[in-house]
Amino acid sequence: MIQVRDSFQIRFGKIDQAVDLFLRLPKEVPEVFQPAGARIELLSDISGPMYTLHEAMHFESLESWDGSLQALFARPEFQEWFKDWKQFVEDGSREFYRVEQDNGGWSGKGAVVVRSCFRALAWRVHDAVDLLKDHGAMLVDCGVGQRPRVLTDASGRMFNIVLEVETPDLHTWEQHRRTMFRDPSFQAWFQRLLTCMSHGSHEFHSFLG
Questions:
Q1: What CATH number is attached to the domain comprising 166?
Q2: Tens digits of per-residue pLDDT, 22-41?
Q3: Which of 74, 100, 126 is the last residue of a domain?
Q4: Contact between residue 1 and residue 105 where contact means Cβ atoms under 8 Å apart
């Protein structure tokens, strides 16, 4: 399975209109995506540059994604929709990831998603993937996370790994972050992580649908 992640910089003050318009498209042309088994997620920024939308599309293969994209472009409904959409978008980018561990999607609208992005040391990706799967399970056991998903890069710079997890709220996440180093099991895990990773960052998003 792959994840195609499109990031859109929305014009200042136009985020609500852009979200409403974006969520209309799958309803207008559902048959374009459903036969390919696609799962589409729309997320907005809680951290980072303001008024950013992220569309995460999950397909079984690049061929499935490309076929759906070409079918979408050929639909007159899309052409009409796109006339409005381009009025809201200033810039954008696209990234491809391999899904190393799927989660079936987020629990529902309003879910808080934490995206932890790591830079693995050269040729240590497989070890790092196993460690992030373990960390996702630890977050679930602690009650601070659920539905962990692990991704590796399929475009751009090599050795990038992502752990996406849903958390009840930002307060719960922050409290756990302040206390997790007291846990001997986390300390042991972190020492192993240091042998695989060079640095990382967190992003926080809200699931819109």
A1: 3.30.70.100
A2: 999 988 888 876 766 789 99
A3: 100
A4: no
pLDDT tens by residue, 96-126: 999 999 999 999 999 999 999 999 999 999 9
Specify the number of domains making up the chain.
2
User: For residue 206, is it within any domain?
Assistant: no
Q: Are residues 137 and 187 in the same domain?
A: yes
Q: Tell me, what amino acid is at 146?
A: Q
Q: List the domain range (segments joined by +) for residue 51.
A: 2-100
